[in-house]
Amino acid sequence: MLRVAFLIPLLPLAGFLILLASGRKLGNPLSGWVATFLVAASFVVTVIVFAGLFRLPVGARSYTQSWFTWISAGHLHVDMGLLIDPLSMTMAAFVTGVSALIHLYSIGYMEHDEDFPKFFLYLNLFVAAMLVLVLADNFLLLFLGWEGVGVCSYFLIGFWFERDSASSAAKKAMIFNRIGDAAFLVALFLIYERTGSLEYQRVFAHLGSVGEPSLVAIGILLFGGAVGKSAQIPLYPWLADAMEGPTPVSALIHAATMVTAGVYLMCRINPILYRAPDAAHVIAIVGAATAFLGATIACAQDDIKKILAYSTISQLGYMFLAAGIGAYDAAIFLMLTHAFYKALLFLGAGSVIHAMNDEQDVKTMGALARLMPITAVTFLIGWLSIGGVPVLSGFWSKGDVLLNAFAFSPALWAVGAVTAVLTAYYMGRAYLLVFRGEQRWVEAKPKAKAGLHPHDPSWVMSAPLVVLGALSAVGGLINLPIHPDFDFLERWLNPVFATRLFSHQWSLGGVWTFALVDAALALAGVGLALALWGRTYERPAVGPVFLRRAWYIDWAYDRLIARPSTEVAIETSSVVEAKGIDGTVNGFAWVVRATGRRLRSVQSGYVRNYALGLAAGLVLILAYVLTRAS
Amino acid sequence: MTTAASWYLTLAAVLFTIGAIGLLVRRNVLVMFMCVELMLNAANLTFVTFARRLNDIAGQTAVFFVLVVAAAEVVVGLGIIVSIYRRRPGATADDIHRLKG
Amino acid sequence: MTLLAATIPDAVTFVIAAAICVLGALGVVLSRNPVHSALMLVMTLFGVAVLFVEEDAQFLAAVQVIVYAGAIVVLFLFVIMLLGVDQKEAIERDPLPAQRPVAICVGILVLAEVLLLARGHWPTGARSVSGAIGSPADNVGLIGRSVFTTYLLAFEVTSALLVVAVIGAVVLARRPRPALGGSAPATGPAVEPDGDDEDPDDTEPDGGEAGTAETVSSAAAQAEDELASPEVPGP
Description:
The complex is a heterotrimer.
Chain A: H1 7-55, E1 63-73, E2 76-84, H2 86-109, H3 116-135, H4 139-157, H5 164-195, H6 200-205, H7 212-229, H8 237-241, H9 247-256, H10 261-268, H11 270-275, H12 277-298, H13 304-325, H14 328-355, H15 373-387, H16 393-408, H17 410-435, H18 440-444, H19 459-474, H20 488-497, H21 508-533, H22 545-548, H23 553-600, H24 607-629
Antiparallel strand pairs in A: 1-2
Helix pairs in contact in A: 1-2, 1-3, 2-3, 2-9, 2-14, 2-19, 3-4, 4-5, 5-7, 7-10, 7-12, 9-14, 12-13, 12-17, 13-14, 13-16, 13-17, 14-15, 14-16, 14-19, 14-20, 15-16, 15-17, 15-19, 16-17, 16-21, 17-21
Chain B: H1 5-25, H2 29-54, H3 58-87
Helix pairs in contact in B: 1-2, 2-3
Chain C: H1 8-30, H2 34-54, H3 58-83, H4 99-119, H5 139-150, H6 152-173, H7 200-203, H8 224-228
Helix pairs in contact in C: 1-2, 2-3, 5-6
């Protein structure tokens, strides 16, 4: 059964190729259905392979399948190979599952777009690349998938490329990603140089012979790549701008899948991080800082998608915090539940935007709960989940992270706790402003919104919301800390992390204490939101400017880096390139032409002149003979 | 004693130079031709001088052949000149300058 | 080699003959009238013939006078008279800039170099390789023997050359007869039938190139025979 694993990335890739060849012919909505079907089929295959893996005894849950040799140059040997183990299958399962739901949703969301087939083409390619990323058995193939998702992100963010803001955002995403990729590449070089291979199993087997400074360097560099891909400090500004893309893109790529690739990478290299605690500590600290930063900025945003974007940055910070302290399964658990509720929130936001005729400003929404019940309920579930309200999935997953964080370092726990409060608060603010209160959009833009009748979308868009809502609600059941029998996820992932997993065994009392504390934090945030935004709208109408402007960090990047670089580029192109390099090349041509012009006058056409030339030559020859003869 | 060879060689050189300058300076085709004959004669003189100096009959034989070839050359050359002049009376050496660059 | 070791008669003869040569040469180059140039050339040739005699090349002296002065220069004069090229040439100005001064400079340089070479060390070849020069009475015989034995191939080749020259001159200078129901006359090696039987003055390309092969004009053939056959001292 495991042998069909190669179909998992191949089906979406086939979808990409089919749509590339005949997408326009299939048209709207058939191309969407083809794409969705293929991703759903990939999900089914994933489940099959998952079951196959499950049937293997615990110690033997690792299966590699190699398609062909990709590179064989000297000592470097890289295969196109898949590694089927609990971690990769977990990732594959939720990637394909959530992707299938989002594909379905997109059929409804993008139905009025004329580039409908192109959208699904890119989405399928993205899913294929993401699956290659998570299923790879060597770093180079992972990097191939890494780059693939980066490229698809660029395409999809800039999908409506006629908009300047969209194409700029796509470029920005690419550039920030690239910076991370540079670090990743250096790490690859280092890995190969120190261990002689790029395959996970070989690399991890040779780690004993590598010195700790190299391991720290590798860890930090790979984290650098993750920082770019998963929008951590300092490479996070692109994620907010990436909201220029269509909402399903934001849901899939910038919430559930691509940005989690960095976390996956950290979990995958746990043998390296285990031996390089300094690197791991850096990861944890950066993660915690980012979590706090993202949450504070989200509190003051007015664009619903930007709120969700900064929320993603914050939650990813949590995941890196968990990975940094060694609680890998907590990180994966949080990733899983986050995929559910963040995708849900984004899709819900998409419904609202769709219903409000592409309006994204929460200040001009309100009282939509009655008009869009399904969306409202699912959004509520998403809010409560992300806030960490018991007994929804977020409560368990975030609780897991905080539990381990306290055992590692109470300071980090404190940051996480404050962030948890903020998380519940800002998401509550979003919910209340959009779905409760008065219909502010009637007065705000009377002319534009005159014929506006917000309503719940059709079943293609509502069904995924419902499914994700259900998953968000009950998803926590896969890893309950209450009783050792219930932590299915931890046991499932154990072969991958083994003894390197940091999992403090709290007593039952300790577990319950923390559960209560988490619940208190969540309810505090919810209460704060209700207090400030529940009734009226007159409360701080806008958040402090400092937060609204995202701590001015992006502004600083622009002023300190982007503008000077552009100046340098302009200077170089106009001076060095045009005058220097071009000038030299043109200069050659000019010299040739000028010389030719001068020399041309020798060809006078008169025979007597030529005879004179002959005579002059004779003079020279005789002179030579004279000098030799004497 | 007879005259020294260097006198004859000097004379031949002078004749050759005059012929060469004339060839370069004159424009009338026939006069240019005659300058060529002058140069040939200078060469002949040199040959004969060396024949005497080296006491070798081959120098004189060479002059013999030079004479023959000069004659043939004159024949053909004049034929060409006649053909040209039929077409273009008053042509000079300067009229051909199509190869001007 | 001693420069001045010479008998008086030889020296005097040499000086006079040399003067004649040089004057003649200058006359060729400097005369305005081509006929004058030709006559000056004759003078030079006579001077050279005298010098040949002085150098024990009597046969060559005779041949020089007969062939060179007597046939070739006459040929020149024929052509000059025939074509009316005896107009005076504007000799004062040279249309080509710097041609004249540079030519004179180059000429003087060549002269200087040759004179330097002349005074220098002679490359001495082997002596009497092809036979010694004997007494004046034997000169003809010696040359004849040399031509017919040692240099036989050259002799044969030059014979062929003469034939070719004759044919070439005939073909070059002929005017094809206008077609009276007959095709263009058979051509020799140097001419291609241009199909210009009717009126080559219209069909010929313009420009005055020395396109000798094309210049077969349509006027009635005249004087081709007169131009075609120089006298050659045959074997």
